[in-house]
């Protein structure tokens, strides 16, 4: 029975084993100095020691955390509020509001160019400000995208992630019993209190799922940082790209070591986040 079950799952398991598990194995092996393009003369943990002793790694790591956390939080918050607003619309308007799904088909790099087109110093907003006399020239417009805070990447990830969060939250709201909101209103609860105490607990699982996915994607993605990232500190994905393609082949284990560290952090983050959320939910139930 187990053999038949595995054979039925083989169309899914084989690509997973070859592409994902094979990629993880190759990355881990090269981080230790094995299977590298050139013979590696360092020790097993030399690449990790070189990375973990570099101050630039920690700057990039915490900068990536900042961008990922803020963009995921903004996307989930905006997506939840917009989903609730769409859900309360009449049925005909809800159908028209499905336009929010359009950004889901846009590639991330296209969203990066949209942000660049609107918010750069030579973009549309800057041109409108100059036309209306708010600024005298291009230098009078604030440097939003490359200010050192990652605002351009945060904005791009938030714009791309908001429809995704809306999609997950809407899936739960469509199964939500509206009589609970009516009962809360009859008992004297305000709209804000009803939203916080009645609606949010029901859509919390979708919010947590969306936050984990958006956070980890923003933390390790390459496309948007390639267009909107600052030089220093750069995102970890940009550092890996530079080590892999623009440095000597002898530094390949360092690039792979960063990837292994990012993978381990992602696993630990999922584990810690779910544990904290489960404990908070258990405490709430007891209260």
Describe what you observe in this structure.
This protein is an all-alpha fold. It has a domain at about 60-235 and about 265-285: MetI-like fold (Orthogonal Bundle). About 70% of the residues lie in helices and about 0% in strands. It is built from twelve helices and no strands. The chain is globular and about 75 Å long. It starts with a helix and ends with a helix. The mean pLDDT is about 85.
Helix-strand layout with pairing:
Layout: H1 2-31, H2 46-52, H3 55-87, H4 91-96, H5 108-119, H6 124-131, H7 151-173, H8 179-186, H9 191-220, H10 223-228, H11 236-245, H12 252-286
Helix pairs in contact: 1-12, 2-12, 3-7, 3-9, 5-7, 7-9, 8-9, 9-12, 11-12
Uncertain stretches: none
Note the gap between the termini: 46 Å
Radius of gyration: 23 Å
Q: Mind telling me the CATH class of one domain?
A: Mainly Alpha
- Can you write the helix and strand succession as a string? HHHHHHHHHHHH
Q: Please, what is the average pLDDT?
A: 87
Under CATH, the homologous superfamily of one domain reads MetI-like
Summing up helix and strand content along with how strands pair, one would put the structural category as: mainly alpha
Q: Bin the strand percentage.
A: under 5%
* Tally of alpha and pi helices: 12
**Could you say what the CATH architecture of one domain is?**
Orthogonal Bundle
Q: What's the number of extended β-strand segments?
A: 0
- How much helicity do the residues have? over 70%
Query: How does the overall form come out from the CA principal axes?
Result: globular
What is the makeup of the main sheet? none
CATH topology of one domain: MetI-like fold
């Amino acid at each position: 029975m187990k053999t038949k079950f595995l054979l039925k799952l083989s169309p899914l398991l084989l690509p997973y084993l070859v592409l994902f598990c094979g990629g993880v194995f190759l990355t881990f092996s090269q981080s230790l100095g094995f299977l590298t393009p050139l013979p590696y003369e360092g020790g097993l943990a030399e690449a990790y020691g070189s990375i973990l002793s570099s101050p630039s790694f920690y700057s990039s790591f915490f900068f990536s955390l900042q961008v990922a956390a803020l963009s995921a939080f903004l996307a989930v918050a905006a997506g939840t509020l917009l989903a609730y607003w769409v859900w309360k619309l009449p049925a005909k308007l809800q159908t028209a509001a499905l336009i929010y799904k359009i950004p889901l088909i846009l590639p991330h790099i296209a969203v990066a160019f949209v942000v660049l087109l609107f918010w750069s110093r030579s973009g549309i907003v800057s041109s409108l400000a100059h036309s209306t006399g708010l600024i005298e020239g291009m230098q009078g417009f604030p440097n939003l995208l490359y200010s050192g805070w990652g605002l351009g990447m945060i904005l791009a990830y938030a714009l791309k992630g908001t429809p995704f969060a809306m999609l997950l939250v809407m899936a739960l709201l469509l199964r939500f019993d509206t009589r609970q909101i009516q009962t809360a209103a009859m008992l004297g609860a305000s709209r804000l209190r009803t939203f916080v105490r009645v609606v949010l607990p029901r859509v919390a699982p979708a919010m947590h799922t969306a936050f984990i996915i958006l956070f980890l994607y923003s933390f390790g993605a390459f496309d948007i940082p390639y267009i909107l990232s600052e030089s220093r500190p750069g995102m970890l994905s940009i550092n890996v790209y530079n080590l892999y393609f623009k440095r000597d082949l002898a530094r390949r284990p360092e690039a792979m070591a960063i990837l292994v560290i990012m993978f381990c952090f992602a696993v630990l983050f999922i584990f810690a986040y779910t544990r904290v959320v489960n404990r908070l939910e258990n405490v709430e139930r007891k209260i």
